[in-house]
Amino acid sequence: MSDQTKSILAWVIIGLIAGLVASLIVGGGGGIIGWLIAGLIGSVVGGFLARQLNIKLNTGNAFLDQVIIAIVGAIIVLIIARIIT
Predict the structure, then answer these.
(1) Rounded distance, CA 34 to CA 39, Å?
(2) What tens digit of pLDDT does each residue of 35-77 get?
(3) Could you tell me if 50 and 66 are in contact, meaning their C-beta atoms sit under 8 angstroms apart?
(4) 46-73 burial, b for 16+ CB within 10 Å, e for fewer?
(5) By the 8 A CB rule, do 12 and 70 touch?
């Protein structure tokens, strides 16, 4: 498996985890596709905000850091989507 394939797979897994957890916290369904979309967009939003605010979690596990940042971003995305609709 190439490095690019591994990266895409990691993004999908992080997106699913983040979307699922954010949906459980904020509420709402959406199913696996909804979780993936919310999680992937949340990953971008969370990563952007973490960089802009210079937030570093340093849990000792880079994957866990990314998942937590993606969850926070997905929660923000879901709240904004709720406000808009």
Answers:
(1) 8
(2) 888 889 999 999 899 999 999 898 999 889 989 999 999 999 9
(3) no
(4) beeebeeeeeeeeeeeeeebbbbbbbbb
(5) no
